[in-house]
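Quick one: C-alpha cells for this chain, please?
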Amino acid sequence: MIKQLHISNYALIDKLDIGFADGLTIITGETGAGKSIILGALSLILGERADVKAIRDTAAKTIVEATFDIAGYRLERFFQDNDIDWNEHECLIRRELSPTGRTRAFINDSPVQLNVLRELSTRLLDIHSQHSNMLLSRPAFQLSILDSIAQNGQLLEKYHLAYQAYRNAISQLEKTEQEMEQLKRNEDYIRFQLNQLQEMQLQPDEDQQLEALQNKLSNITTLKEALWSVESELNSEENSVLERLSSVAQRLEDAEQNLNEVEGMSARARSALIDLKDIAMSVSSIVDTLNDDPAELARVDERLNNIYTLERKHNAQDVNELINIQHDYEKQLGEIEHNDDIIEELKAQVQANHAAATDLAKKLSDRRHDAAKSFGKEFLALATPLGMKNIAFDVAFDQTGLTPSGTDDVNFMMAFNKNQQPMPVKDTASGGEISRVMLCIKTIIARHMQLPSIIFDEVDTGVSGDVANMIGEMMADIARSIQVIAITHLPQVAANGDHHMRVYKTDTDKETLTRVETLDQQEHITEVARMLSGKELNQAAIENAKSLIKHKHKDK
C-alpha cells in the first residue's frame, strides 16, 4: 500500500506531503481544485510520459516521491535481478523532471531505467479511471481475470516452462534442418577437402620434425666438416688433445707423490680424458652416419611444401590444426550420413514437448471454463443492482494453437438490454457502463488475490441514488482486502470512507496553490453534508450526512 506521497514544483503544487492509510480513503474537492493534478503526479511514479509544461518553477526540478509498504508482495527477486537495495517492509520510488525535459527514476535511491520503475510501480499501484476501462476490451486482460479467479499462477508457470521448451525444440529442429541442408549442398566440397587431408596421412607435430630433418639434410657437408675437425683435434696422430691430456695426467700423478696440494688432480684429469675419448668415439660414429642424400632431402622438401600449401589453404597455423580441421570434416560427413536419425530425434523431442505443453494447456483451459462459470454468476450478482438490471454476461471461448498463454482465446460477451444478443463488451457498453463493469470485476478479483493499491478516479460519474450507494459499498468491500483511494463527487460513496481528504485551492499574493487537508470525523460529516446540500450547508444536511455515514459504517 502507498503510505506517503511527496510532490514538489508540479503544476499548482509548490510542495505537498500526503499520508495514506489502509482501508478506503475518500478524496473530494471542487472541480478544478487539483485532484487531477495529484493523479498526474502519481502517473509519473507509474512511469508515464513527463511533460515539462507541468513544471511550476522552471528554475527548479519537479520531484514526485512515494513510499510504499511492500510487506507480503514477494518482490525480493525483482530487487535482486535489478541490483536494487532490498527492504522487505518499505520501498521508496522517486521520479525527477528537470526544466530541460530530462527525467530520472530512482528506487530506494538507486537510479534505474524507466521500464524498471514502471514494472515495479504497476505492481504496487493501479489508477483506475475512465481511460483505463479500455483494458476491458483486451482479450489478454480478460484472460488474466479468469486466471486470477482460477488461481492459475503456479499452473501458468509450469505451462510457460513447457511452452518455452516446445518453442526451443522447434527452433533447434529448424536450425538443424537448415544446417543439414547446407551440409548436403556442401557435401562434395567437404569430401574433396577431406580426401586431400586424408591422403596426406598427417601425423601430430610432423611439420616440426620435418623442418628439423630438412635443416639437417641441407647442411650435411658443413656438419661433417665441423665434426671431422673435432675428431682430428681430439685424436690425431701427433700432438692431439687426448695425447696432451694423457701427458698432463701423468705429470700430475708424479707431482702428487711429493706435493699434497695437487692431490686428486690426476684423477680428475684421467676422468676428463675418459670423457673426451668417449666424445671422440661418438663424433666418429656420427660422422659415419652423415651421408649426403639428395633424394631424401627432395622428399622432405616436397612433403613440407605440400603441408605448407594445405596450411595456407585452410588458414591453419600448423599440422595439428590441420588434423583438427580433418576431424571436423569427418564429423560433418558423419552428420550428413546420419542426418535422418538426428532429424527424427529432434522431431520426436518437438512432439514430446508439444504433448507436455498441450496437456498443461488443457488443464488451464478446464480451470478457466470453471472460473468463467463462477465469475459470471458473481459478476451478475454485483452488476445487476448497479442500474444494469437487464445485463447478460457470458465468456466465449475459442481454441487456438499453443500460445504463450495457452490455447484459449476468450471474449467477454455482454448485453445491457432485453432481447439483445450478447456482443463483445467493446462493441456494446457505454463509458459509464464499462466503469461499473470494471468496478464489479475488480471487486471480484480483490476477493481472490492480492492486488496493488487501487485509485478510483471518478468512476461513479453519471450515477446517483441506489446505484451510487452500491458503488460506495463495493469500494468499501474491496477496501477490506486492499487499500482503496477513491476520488468522488458522490456523498453516497464518500460516506463509506474510513479516511477522508479534501483538495482545495488557496490564493497568495502572487499565485494560486493546491492544498490537501485530512479531515477528522466531524469535518468528514461536514464535507459529506456539503456534498448533499451544495454550497448552502444546513442542519438538515448535517443530520442526513450523520445518518448516511452511520448506516454505511454499521457493518464495518
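The mean pLDDT is 87.
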